[in-house]
Hints:
- This protein is 33% helix and 32% strand.
- It is of the alpha+beta class.
- It has one domain (2-71).
Amino acid sequence: MRISSTTVRIELIPEDNAEKLILQELAQDSTDDLGLTKLFENGLAIYQPQAKLITKTFMDFPRVALCNFQLVTNFSAIQSV
């Protein structure tokens, strides 16, 4: 759900028992680790492929967060003369 031009609400929805277990373990640990950040980055990439996740504010840890992002410009097509 888009909140503003640089903020979206992302909810991680497990698709199988393994993913449910991962979210349950994260909820028990109550820590925001790199693996959890990667899950939200993947969700953001579906919404906006050129976006870089800047911050997450959890609404329902670890499943739902407001994610602030910045659009990244790809300079790989620019060649030096």
